[in-house]
Amino acid sequence: IEDIRSRARAAFIGLAVGDSLGAPVEFMTAGEIEEKYGVLKEIVGGGWLRLKPGQVTDDTDMALCIARALAAAGGWSLTGIADNFAGWLKSKPVDVGATCRRGIRNYMLKGTLETPYNQWDAGNGAAMRMLPVALLTLGDERMMADCVVAQARITHNHPLSDGACVVLGKLLHLALLGVSKSRLRLELEGLLAQHESFRFDHYHGLSTGYVVDTMQTVFHHFFRGRDFEECLVGAVNQGGDADTTAAIVGSLAGACYGMEGIPRRWLKKMDKNLLAEIDRLARKLIDLSPLATAA
Amino acid sequence: LKKVEAIIKPFKLDEVKEALNEIGIQGITVSEVKGFGRQKGHTELYRGAEYVVDFIPKIKMEIIVGDDIVAKVVETIEQAAKTGRIGDGKIFVTPVEEVVRIRTGERGEDAL
Amino acid sequence: LKKVEAIIKPFKLDEVKEALNEIGIQGITVSEVKGFGRQKGHTELYRGAEYVVDFIPKIKMEIIVGDDIVAKVVETIEQAAKTGRIGDGKIFVTPVEEVVRIRTGERGEDAL
Amino acid sequence: LKKVEAIIKPFKLDEVKEALNEIGIQGITVSEVKGFGRQKGHTELYRGAEYVVDFIPKIKMEIIVGDDIVAKVVETIEQAAKTGRIGDGKIFVTPVEEVVRIRTGERGEDAL
Ligand SMILES: Nc1ncnc2c1ncn2[C@@H]1O[C@H](COP(=O)(O)OP(=O)(O)O)[C@@H](O)[C@H]1O
Ligand SMILES: Nc1ncnc2c1ncn2[C@@H]1O[C@H](COP(=O)(O)OP(=O)(O)O)[C@@H](O)[C@H]1O
Ligand SMILES: Nc1ncnc2c1ncn2[C@@H]1O[C@H](COP(=O)(O)OP(=O)(O)O)[C@@H](O)[C@H]1O
Ligand SMILES: [Mg+2]
Ligand SMILES: [Mg+2]
Questions:
Q1: For D1-112, where are the E strands, in sequence order?
Q2: Could you give the CA distance from residue A5 to residue A255 in angstroms, rounded to a whole number?
Q3: In this predicted model, what pLDDT tens digit does every residue of B66-92 receive, in sequence order?
Q4: Are chains C and A in touch, 3+ Cβ pairs below 8 Å?
């Protein structure tokens, strides 16, 4: 179980590292990044949000909202998550997506925990933050699918967003249990039969906030990179929604390659308190999971 | 969709913005205007002589919102902008038929 | 309730305000705008070279009024602002659904 | 009759005006406003610490048009003002009940 805790910690830290590595180049094209940085391999800060190096954005913030709610509740709590989202929105975070803002505002003003279906809700805002749900539900795939869609529906109600959350949940569960990367690729092939639009064999290089583009970019760079650093460097230099694609790649690569895979120089740039809190939350969520409680 | 327009005292801008932030509203367009009303202007000294300036600087805020939260937005601005003294200002609600987010082409409430 | 918006030549502001005062209208919000239209801009001398500035400064007045006096207010502005030369401006009338006086919480015509 | 209001990035004013001229739209009223939204302000140095100013200068354009060309005007502004980056702005369409050309007294579409 200690190995699983360590992978969980690496997955969550990988999410934060990916966020802070990609955020400085969010919304830039691959060409613009090449012109400015050559190949971006360091956590440099700046970007449209004028970040300090190592600062994280809404991707990590919202994942923390979920993790803190579940840890405090000692298990699943949708209202706990929604309350944390509301508190976070009022705290003037460095960035909030328009769809996330609208869903959280509707919860604050009307108490709605599920936003109505909307054709424009196929963004990546629900998938980018779902890791803590995968940790809490390790060992029970059915519980994972129910919970990951419930948390998504606070802000995003679209089958493609739901599908991305469930596919990522299944892959993360396998990676946390130590399944090899080549076996992960095989398992994903089976999942893509039900989620054809996430196929990435002929990757077009589209890396927008549209969840289909995000998932193709994530799978393309996760399976192309041969270690944690290569996976993330590939994702961020693709540009577009670089912090979100790198955060999701970071969670998969973290679970896969473990803490030893995450470059020390990147960890040094991160906020010490953030890393300590992530460490504590990751362990707590694994210990609450069906897998741990059954053992 | 509605447009909520508020003419308020300039020193109240931050307080109104804060109050709107508490209900999840961030998108606002602000302009500097001059108000004529019951509140009288002030006198200014110019080259030793006193002049009466009859307008008062105000701030105009424009916020487009969905129909379901208009009342809440008006109430929030009203409470935050009020001092109880003459010249606190006015809030107007007008109909909006369409909104477009230029960056993405989204329309309607999704454009807010 | 309606909003009467007038784009007028800046030197006409006092005359229009005066004319509105005479029909009992006192509450007005004014802003400085730039107008593009048939009236052509002027040339400015800058470091010895002539530049064409293609916009013309205008004043925008916004007045919220009750339905019963809209026609009178429009006519009053029209007469006071007119010079007969190009660029005199425009008056727009748009619907208003609600008005609130922030100081007292009064709504509707009582808020004017 | 409708009013098309566009909040755009200041450097886009000429390009949008140009695009509107090409579809025969010439009459526009422009004002300088401050935008609060997702786009961050610039940084200022104050006593050695860096602050982010939370508003961004924007330009507001107001154009009164006939109902038959509203969609075309909105589309024209959308295409000319777009950069694809956060903060490109918004376009609002609101109903107008009456327009008057002050110089001639013309009303309705003839006043445009
Ligand atoms: N009828 C109106 N139409 C447009 N703006 C108005 C109107 N009445 C007042 N205002 C605006 O509201 C501001 C406050 O009005 P004022 O009469 O001074 O105080 P109060 O709102 O407390 O009665 C004015 O400075 C002006 O900008
Ligand atoms: N269609 C319009 N929409 C908004 N404002 C307009 C429109 N047409 C004109 N204006 C405003 O009215 C002002 C006067 O218009 P202009 O064409 O110069 O002269 P005139 O009104 O005498 O024909 C312009 O400077 C501009 O501010
Ligand atoms: N609800 C709103 N009401 C009025 N103005 C708004 C609203 N939302 C945004 N704006 C204006 O639009 C501008 C751009 O919005 P912003 O959120 O920065 O980016 P984007 O339009 O690309 O999502 C803001 O600076 C502000 O002037
Ligand atoms: Mg982000
Ligand atoms: Mg992002």
A1: 2-8, 28-36, 43-46, 49-52, 56-65, 89-95, 98-101
A2: 10
A3: 999 999 999 999 999 999 999 999 999
A4: no
